[in-house]
């Protein structure tokens, strides 16, 4: 028997009355597990949207449920407590003082990554603005951009290119230099990682002064690809990193 699509399942839920408002802040919706990227084998139960922030949320997140082939009229009937999502993610990011140098407060995302449901929610939030006009490639920045980039590439069904520190890629590379709030560094990408004209989304865990992101944009443009935008989990707004990016679209999930 062929698996039913997400839209089929939601329309059936509406018909039989299992999709119904239970309050002003949340709606009961069926959540499912995606298979083959486009079909869904549904979990035979419903959960509250507020539970997006809980530790036992089944896959996929509510973000995926609301944006994969969902009828526009149905989207308007579902509301989500985004503050609960943000609070959950923010609470899992650890501040480490004086790392990597004195005076720096490091935002440690490893404490979020080890929580599977929160990681899933974070990936959904990073993908959210780019689901309609999807990228053809993601360019993930070493090293904390890698886990988010890999998961997002699967979610958005596109390819993944790696931007690494000098000397870590084996074939011919392009290199761009940049300044950090605590020093300077360089990024490299394989010369054949991107094709001219490809739409590319740059991914990292954090936007600070904007130097790393600016170097990533420069590398994409050198390979004659198009920068669709930059998606980061954390933005340190007080460092004004967006000013380095010349009007490039920047999406951040959490702002500090």
Task: Describe the protein's architecture and organization.
It is a single chain. This protein is α/β, with parallel strands linked by helices and 256 residues long. The protein has two domains: 6-80, no CATH class; 94-255, 3-Layer(aba) Sandwich (Rossmann fold), CATH 3.40.50. Helix content is 28%, strand content 30%. It has helices spanning 6-16, 62-67, 72-75, 82-91, 110-113, 116-127, 145-156, 211-222, and strands at residues 28-35, 39-48, 94-97, 105-108, 137-141, 159-163, 173-180, 183-190, 199-207, 226-235, 250-255. The strands form four sheets. Strands 6-5-9-10-11 form a five-stranded parallel beta sheet, with helices on both faces. Helix 6 (116-127) crosses helix 7. The longest helix has 12 residues, at 116-127. It is globular. Residues 1-11 and 13-81 have low confidence and may be disordered.
Please summarize what this structure is.
It contains 8 helices and 11 strands.
Classification by helices and strands: alpha/beta
- List the secondary-structure elements in sequence, H or E: HEEHHHEEHHEHEEEEHEE
Multimeric organization: single chain
Residue share in helix: 25-40%
Keywords:
single chain, alpha/beta, 256 residues, disordered N terminus, two-stranded antiparallel ribbon, 8 helices, Rossmann fold, 11 strands
Topology diagram in text:
Blueprint: H1 6-16, E1 28-35, E2 39-48, H2 62-67, H3 72-75, H4 82-91, E3 94-97, E4 105-108, H5 110-113, H6 116-127, E5 137-141, H7 145-156, E6 159-163, E7 173-180, E8 183-190, E9 199-207, H8 211-222, E10 226-235, E11 250-255
Parallel strand pairs: 5-6, 5-9, 9-10, 10-11
Antiparallel strand pairs: 1-2, 3-4, 7-8
Helix pairs in contact: 6-7
């Amino acid at each position: 028997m062929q698996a039913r699509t997400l839209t089929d399942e939601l329309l059936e839920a509406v018909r039989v009355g299992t999709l119904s408002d239970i309050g002003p802040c949340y709606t009961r919706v069926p959540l499912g597990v995606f298979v083959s990227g486009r079909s869904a084998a549904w979990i035979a139960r419903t959960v509250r949207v507020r539970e997006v922030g809980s530790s036992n949320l089944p896959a996929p997140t509510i973000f995926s449920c609301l944006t994969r082939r969902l009828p526009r009229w149905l989207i308007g009937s579902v509301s989500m407590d985004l503050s609960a999502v943000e609070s959950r993610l923010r609470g899992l990011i650890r501040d480490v003082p004086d790392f990597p140098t004195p005076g720096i407060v490091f935002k440690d995302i490893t404490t979020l990554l080890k929580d599977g449901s929160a990681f899933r929610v974070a990936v959904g939030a990073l993908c959210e603005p780019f689901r309609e006009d999807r990228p053809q490639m993601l360019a993930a920045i070493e090293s904390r951009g890698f886990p988010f980039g890999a998961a997002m590439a699967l979610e958005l069904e596109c390819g993944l290119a790696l931007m690494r520190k000098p000397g870590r890629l084996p074939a011919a590379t392009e290199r761009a230099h940049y300044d950090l709030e605590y020093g300077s560094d360089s990024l490299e990408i394989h010369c054949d990682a991107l094709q001219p004209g490809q739409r590319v989304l740059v991914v990292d865990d954090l936007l600070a002064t904007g130097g790393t992101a600016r170097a990533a944009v420069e590398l994409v443009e050198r390979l004659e690809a198009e920068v669709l935008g930059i998606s980061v989990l954390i933005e340190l707004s007080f460092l004004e990193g967006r000013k380095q990016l010349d009007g490039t679209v920047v999406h951040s999930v959490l702002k500090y």
